[in-house]
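REQUEST ID: PR-0412
SUBMITTED BY: lab tech R.K.
PRIORITY: routine
TASK: structure prediction, single protein chain
INPUT:
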Amino acid sequence: MTPATVPSVEDVPLPEIDVLGEAFAADPLGVLADARRRGDGLARSHRGVEVLSYDRVAAQLHDDRFHTVDARHFKQKGGPDSLLRFAEDGLLLSMDKPRHDRVRRILARAFTLRRVDEQREVMREVATRWIDRFAATGRCDLVDDFTQHYPMEVLCRLIGVPPADIPRFVDAAHDLHLLAAVPMAPGFERIDRALATLEAYVLDIVERRRQQPEADVLTGLLEAQALEGHLTESELVGNVVNLLFAGAGTTRYQLASAVRDLVVHGWWERLAAEPDLVPAALEEAMRFAPVTQFVVRIPDDDVEVEGLRYLARRRVILNLLAASRDPAMFPEPDRFDPLRDNVARSRLPFGWGTHHCLGHALARAAMREALLLLTARFTDVRIDGDVELAPAAAMLRGPEHLPLAFVTR
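STATUS: complete
OUTPUT:
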């Protein structure tokens, strides 16, 4: 326990950020930059204490005294039983360490670099098929026509979910993003329905795989469950639900955001001429406009960090958007530059250590293959209308619609 004599971070004067206000909606980066300067990397909003500097965010992502939200948090908020069960058995980040490590070891087999590399031909085939649907028209809504379909199909092909089944659960998977809403309670009914839909679907596909095994991740998980007994039925179902949930939004937003920034900042033709730059361009895109804008951490006990006491069970917001534009880490942070020296050092988009995203290699590979195909096939690409973004205060943010005009090479 931290001595009560250490000042609480909630009692010290910090800049206040109204993340639901007009100023934040109009210019979130400007508001965050101003607060970061005035508060030495800390601020306060209705969400909790906001950590805004790169070094502070990185340190607290590494700090095992801060935990992700768990079933206790959702129960305190009045969440339905389905949500408590999902948090307990399906949200890997919410599990206690021994259980987390056991389940993660099994799931990690699904996302090895070798398995991801084996999927590259599938990625190219899926991307090409979706691109072919609009290539001849000279224009598209990249989200509606491509990014909301392509990454989900790639993930489902890896897991072993038939692409034809995606319409059965994709809306429910998107509704689970309400878990990040503040306040959360108004979305509980939709969350409950979404979990019921996803769990029913996963139970169905699990039973099909038991009857007819395939060379896919789901069959591998069933074999591990049967031979090693390392996964309960609830853990198996919950974690497959979580994979479908995780794949429903992040890559859709991030890939569309990367395309937007490559076009707006004049890098499209450079990448078409020098495809070896695509990986660096993608890393810069994830720094410049990270789809996950913040993550929540909660200490079980009072915790002292740099002379300030963070109170037990109080939300701490690690603001990845603000940290990714911290000039102390990234000189000229508002300049989009795939050639910047330290772009590869920004490890915020997929986290670190214990909580490093299992699907990071798959997400990166899928986005790289898509960018290689898109830049090779289209020239004279321009934004052809209004780009509709998710709300500025949302946990996940990127283009909801991205109208493009182009010429086929």
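NOTES: The mean pLDDT is 90.
REVIEWED BY: pending
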